[in-house]
Amino acid sequence: MKISSSQPLRGKYYHIKTFGCQMNENDSERMAGLLEESGAERVSSPEKSDIIIVNTCAVREKSEDKLFSYLGRLSHLGKKRDKVVGVTGCVAQLYRNSLFTKNESIDFIAGPDNYRQIVNIILEVRKEKRAATQWSRNWQNIPYESTVHENPVSSYVTIMEGCNNFCTYCVVPFTRGREKYRPVKLVLDEVKFLSSLGYKEIILLGQNVNCYQDPDTGEEFFLLLRRVTEIDGIEWIRFITSHPKNFNKNLANTMNENQKICRQLHLPVQAGSNSVLKRMKRGYTLEEYLEWIRLLKSLMPDICLSTDIIVGFPGESEKDFHKTCDLLEEVGYTNIFSFRYSPRPLSAAGRYQDSVPLETKKKRLIELQELQKKIQLRQNKQKVGRVMKVLCLGHSKKDPKIYSGRNEGYQVVNFKADRDFTGNFVMVRITSCGPYSLRGEAVNNALFSLSRINHTTESSYRKD
Ligand code: SF4
Question: Residue 361 to residues 118, 125, 316, 357: CA-CA distances in angstroms?
Answer without folding.
Answer: 40, 43, 10, 6
